[in-house]
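task queued by scheduler; priority normal; single chain, no ligands, no partner chains; default sampling; output format set to structure tokens
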Amino acid sequence: MKQDEDLDKLLENLPFFIRETLVSHSSKEKLIEIVIDLGRRPEARFVTGPKYLSQKVISWQDIDYLTKRIGKFSNDNRAGIERTLHRISCIRNRQFLINGLTCRIGRAIFGPISSIRDLLESRQSILLLGRPGVGKTTIIREIARVISDEMEERVIIVDTSNEIAGDSDIPHSGIGRARRMQVAATELQHQIMIEAVENHMPQVIIIDEIGTELEALAARTIAEKGVQLVGTTHGNCLENLIKNPPLSDLIGGIQYVTLSDDEAKRRGTQKSILERKAYPAFQLAIEINKQNSWTIHEDVKSSIDLLLRGNFTITQIRELSQNQKTTIKYKKLQTTSFSLIKNFSNRKNRSMHFRENWINPIRPTTLQNLKTKKLFVFIYSISPNLIYEILKKLKFQVIVTKEIQKTSLIIGSPSKLKENVRLRNLSKKYNIPIFSITKHNIYQIVNLAKYFNKSKQNSLQ
């Protein structure tokens, strides 16, 4: 990864005894932030841990020296340095005098999103989640550059605290050709989001730190206008958003629903359950676990529904190694924290959901093909790569074929399979089961493999 930083522009504004130590420090490139508090020794926080910078304690004069050399503090107590990405946040006493400063080092890092480049090209709205300091702002800055420069889309950045494009009327080069709209006060962010769509015709809007109900509502409004969104919010995972009522609208909103007796019996649940109210404003969600390890929810709608049911969902883990090689793994996530259902049978619910995807189900004569884990699959109208990879990881020997007579299974998208009457007639003629996959849903493919495993065991008995 290439890094572009203007660390010297920050260091030259620091008191001499702090600057002198940092200029010659061996771990200067690993510096995260500098902490300056009245009456305490100055401290630098590196990736490897904190270090004191001097034996001298900070005085009022030291704080005054720094604050006079940087930009003015906004109503959210943040300031910056002209044409840099550094952020200085202040702590005030009861008389509103500044008695503490946190100098966050801003870096434009080129290359951290190489492992999710395919997700950007899907043109779907993406929500990034992660704890403070994990690098969400750095990532969406790089996303803005890639989408505007390499994908040549019209990008508007709603930059509330000038963290994405720097503290200047001229935005930092790290955002590429993307345009930046500054926000005068944090409480006005939702208005600027709507204004960006109405006045400047963007194809993509990028928002950092969506944190209020009004901002979540504005994000939904933008999504309904057909504009792609890339946003960040605090929270380690999707479950945090379900528990956060002001932000739950980002993932469709959560409501209590009372079912009829017959419906509750059919579902195998209690009468009062939690359900998603509407479509999510974001179709993709990325949980930033660590700097080089991300959890991908490829279909937020399905993930939220499964979490609310207390069912398991399959998530994708992408890890970027030091040699810039991306490793993709799949993990089963099980939760019951949002389910109101007691004595709930996951097996019953999964099989019910699974049967809905069969167009032409497996017949007894087809079970003879399952005595070995060799699958001759005819894939219609969808990309075979994901299906092939998942079935292979589940230890099936997958052979993609175009000869219908040799086929064990036909997999395709529901709309295309519905249109192809000839293919459906051939499947009936040769007793070939057809399974429909919606948007490459991994959950459905895993269920398919489990069904084959069960059928194979029954056929051998």
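post-processing summary
- The domain at 111-348 is CATH 3.40.50.300 (Rossmann fold).
- DSSP finds 15 helices and 24 strands in the chain.
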